[in-house]
Amino acid sequence: MWATQDVAQPASYAKVFRHPLYPRLVTTSTSFAVHAAPGTRMVVYVPADDATRQAMERLAAAGSPQPRFPCFQTHQARALVFQPA
Fold it and tell me: Cys-Cys link to 31, which of 14, 43, 47, 61 (CB 3.0-4.6 A)?
C-alpha cells in the first residue's frame, strides 16, 4: 500500500490519560486511515516522556485487577442502562 500511495496522511496528537495510580500519562498518538478499507483506522499511543513510559511499564507488569477511580461503579451502572439494543 505504501508503494502505491494508497494510504492517508498520518496525524499525530498529544493525549493525556488519567489513571488512579498515575494521574497524568502523557502520550503522542499517531492515527491513520487506509483508503482501501473505509472505516479502518489504526491509532498508536507512545509515551511522550520517561515518567509516562515507566508508569506504563509498571501498569503492564501489574496484571489484573487494575485500580479503578472511586466513581467506577456509578459509571458502570449508567453504561449498563444506556446500552444499545
Answer: 43
